[in-house]
Amino acid sequence: MNRILQLIQEMREPTMKLSSFLKSPALQAFCHKYDAQSLAEIHTSFSNMDRFRAMIQKQRLLAFPAGQSYNGVLFELERNPALKEYVQEIYQDPDGLMIICMLKEQASLLLSLSSFEVDMSYKRLKSSKMNEVVFATYLPQFGKIITLCRIFTEQENPNGDMDNKQMTGLAQYLAEVDSEHRPYQWQLKNIMIFCHIHFFRSITKAVGSQDHVENEKVRNWAAHKKNQVIAAGLNKFCSLIPADVYDSVRNHTNAAEQTHNKSYAFGRGQTLLQGVLSAWKLDTRDMIQYDARKQYGIHHSYRTDNMRAQYQRHVSRQESLRRKRPSAPADEVIDLEDDTHSIRPSRAASPRPRSRPRSIPSSSPLRSSPSLRSSPPIQSSPTRHSSPRGRSRHGIGVHNSQQLRRVASSNLASATLNQGNTLERERDLLELERQKLEIRKMQEELQAKELENESKRLDLEERRFNLERRRRS
Fold this sequence. Notes:
The protein has about 475 residues and is an alpha+beta fold. The radius of gyration is 33 Å and the shape is elongated. The protein is built from 18 helices and 5 strands.
């Protein structure tokens, strides 16, 4: 029993429950020492699982006496000096709480970038008031997404895309650091690019496939997009950002969204302390992999990361989606690489972020503004370099042949899908023509009945006239 208690103490896992403890590798190794697969096989008294559940609960309370929310984070900072190097600032006032987490290596990398992305996750933390804002970027030369900063903050509602309050907060900060103190509209029109993918999705959500819609929801949507700042973030001709710069910045936040997916590996709905600790592990691993690639050329995975390989994976992914959803049109299959946006730093002393409906500043101080529901730009599409080591001419020929087969298969599948869509449209047209013919037939039958009734009415009038004439005679 003492050894089992020691195992629980050594784990010090905030989320550990009885089920996770019973599946842990440490417990499995302990059971193997006794040639058993479970605790009940070691001793009959171990059949009572509530006993271990109580032990786990007790050790969790002892390990985290201040809980796992805000007070738990403060307590962990006091007893773990290494965590202090990650948690840079904690702000708390009547308006809410903000915890800024960043390693020094991440800060150095952020300062060297010309753009980055920002996105907010609403599923990471258990509390409905706390959300995680992620600063991330994609390094095409390394073929890797790097997290630059994480901010745990309170948000009133999840309507953060193109939110006026958040944009105003960002603009106020930029106006403060701007020596000329230009108006907030000017600040935002120089730094913001909204996500076009989310913009087009909002159109589909508002009107669907209809060509003409009139209702209050659509009117409000159009009025919102008519705002000069919103229009500038969606259309480069309304923006003050130079056209060449506007075109060079990705109009999506794929890197930040991929960072969320990596974080979900530790689970969703975590406590604040769990979120901070898991983020610390992820960001530390990111920087170790970044340094290993930069200094020693060690890749973070064996997967080839050049542009051709990425395109092949993109085609394969689309084909897989088409096979799963054969009735879905090809234009509905959206690649994740196209589902983000970014921001660049501004011209004056203020940064010029580029972002999707979530705006983002680039290369700016992180204490900028609690309104972080915007997203900055990211470097252009990834380009990884593959090594041709060990490839013979024969191997290259086989590889090219396989690639040609894949491309041919992809083209054939696309042609089949397009042909299927064409046939479907033709069937719809034929069905429409059939319905029109049925309507015409019904109209002709109705006219025939009307003529028949008119003929009967005339016959009746004629009979009446003849009867009346006979009476008079």
